[in-house]
Structures are given as structure tokens and as C-alpha cells.
Amino acid sequence: MTDVKFSSSESNKFVFLVDSVAMDRVEGKAVVTGMIHGSITTQDQVYILHPGRRVTIGTIELIRDEAGDMVYNATEGKATITVSLMGARVEVVKFAVLTTIKPQPVVDMSIPVQNPYLFALSYEFDTYCNDLAFNNIFVYELCHSHLVVPFQTAEDAELLEDGRVDVGNDKNVKYLSIHKPTDPNEKVFPVFTDLAELSKWQNVFTPGEKPKIMILSFAKAYAITKGGHVGMGLNLFGAKPVMLPIEFLDKITQLEGYKREFGEKVEDRMEGQKLEEGKLVVGIPPQTQEVKLMRDALVTIGRCRNDIKRIDLLVMMNAKKEKSYLVVVDCPKEVSRDIFDLMDQELVQYANELKVIDYVAMVDAGFIANVLNKSNPVYTLLNK
Questions:
Q1: Reduced to 3 states, what is the DSSP secondary structure of residue 284?
Q2: CA nearest neighbour of 193 among 258, 244, 128, 121
Q3: What is the pTM for the complete model shown?
Q4: Which residues of 2-23 are buried (b: 16+ CB within 10 A; e: fewer)?
Q5: What integer pLDDT is reported at residue 106 of this predicted model?
């Protein structure tokens, strides 16, 4: 994804859930209506978060407040925004999100974790919780988010040089719970989209001490919630807390899509062959939502170029059981590096279950010829 300059001011950070949209495909613009949370200014650049975790970039061209008056800056409240879109064939849909918060498909411990899409959805949860399309997007974002939780450690937990805590295993960790306001005998497991939301829990940390926080996947947070809690509480001390009953979470984990993506390990679902006995396994990836998004991105790239004859998306596992995606491209060798770089810019935002993407030109892929013969190509030139 292209790097652009965003305002570093905390006051300029905002999220905006699209309630309605009118596309101007000729001019490459979208006119969107929704609720502003935070502050936005004309000519600010924003990330556009699309359902399914696709990310594009736009520039705010025009802001109209609820009365229809044109304003230079808007803070909190309903507004209509005209955004100029960067890139071809960008389609903004209802329940997309505009934000100045950079999304993090993969956790980078040097950067504070934020979940701008889930944060924006939580703000409007009460309004749209009965809308099926909204619920589908909310569940998807919840399952793919990196949730922030506070914790306490036993005295034998080891402090690492960079300030992180090596907790060893869950026996050294005490997760915090909150009593349900309507029943002091029932507990809720609190999770947060970011550190700013967690900091609103004013009495959770000892003054003057750095908080101990952990980043959990939804699957891990759900497992903890199942251990004696009646539900999970999202941003419980913020402006728009969301209570997720255990029955709701149970239904999520029973969905076929969830079980396909999170219920089994990738290597248990691979179809493939061993190459160089014990050293390498290459196979067809499972049909998860992540893989679908990557396949769609590869088709788009293939259709934009005349020098790509075929693209295959595979999964590879080495002798150390380290797994990665493998993209095989039938293209002239002299342009393969440029094509690989282009693909990597698009695919890296989707690679969550497997973090590494490897690339190889078809001319160098003879060692996996048997797998390629069984593979259904993502793209062929005949499909253009």
C-alpha cells in the first residue's frame, strides 16, 4: 500500500462509518454520509477500510455539516463528505470506514495496536445491530482484530530487555474481569480496541507504573471468556461500550466460515505433495476468506497487465513446519521482480493467518510441476 503523509495530531484522528454513498466513477469520487467521531479537515488524507479488509486511500475534498453547509473542519456529528479516491476501480460501499488511523493487518509491537474498523463499528453498534450486513462485517472484524487486554503476572514472570514480559504460560498470568452491573455474581471479560480506550479504565493500573498489556486474537479472548464469564465487553469504559453475551460468541465460533478459517490449522487442510522427502510440502490453500481476498487481488493485477499469462496461489511448508503462501507467476523473467513487488504491495494487507508470501516465476517452478498440474489457476490470460 502506498505511504502517504497523515497528520500526527491526536486531535485529528477520526473514524467515520459510511451510512449511505453516491459514487461518481467518472471523476473517481465518492459522496458519503455518516457520523464523524473525532475531527477531520478538508484536504486531509484518509484510509478507506472496505469490508473484507481491503484498504485504499482517499483525500477529503468537501465537508458539509448536518444542515448542508460547507465547512472546512468538522468534529463529531453527522456530515456528508466528498472523498477523492486514489486508484482505479475503487468502489466505496455502505459500512465502509474512513479513518486517519493506519490499519495493522499484522501486529507490529513497535507501534501501538489500533483496530480502527472495529472501533468505528462499535460506535454505531446500537444503531445498526439489527442490520444483517452490519452484523456480518462486525463479526468478521471482531474475529480478525488484535484485542488489547490488561493483565497481572506472577512474581516469576521474566522481564525482557525491551520492557516486554515473558509470561511463559497462562499459569503466570492473571486476566482481569469486571462484575456485571446488573448481577455482581456474574463476570465479564473486558477487551479493548486500543490503548486509548483501555486508559479510560482509570483504576486498573497503579499510578506511576507502566501498564502490562497483552495483544490477543479473538480466538484466545473467546477461550478466556468461556472460563467463567457471561460475555465479553468491548471498550466498556468508552463512549460506546458493547456487551457481547457468551451465547453470541458461541454462535460466531460455530459458523462454518469461522471453523474453516480458525478452527483447524492450515497444514491439516493442505492438499499437496512432499518434495525432497521431509524438506518441503507444497499444496492448494484452503478456501478461507483471506485466500479469497488474495485471489481477487491477483486477478485484478493479472487483468491490468499483458505480460502475465497465469497466476497460481499455493501454500508451502518447510522442514521446520514454517508455512508461507507461494505465488507462482507465468511471466517474462526480466519483469518478474517488478511484478512480484507489485503483488506484494497488494497482498501483504490480507496475509494474516500466514504472514509470509513467497514468489517464483513459472520458468523456475519445475520442482512443483505436479502440484501446478492439479492447481486451478487464480488467473489465466484467456480469462482477461
A1: strand
A2: 121
A3: 0.65
A4: eeeebeeeeebbbbbbbbebeb
A5: 62
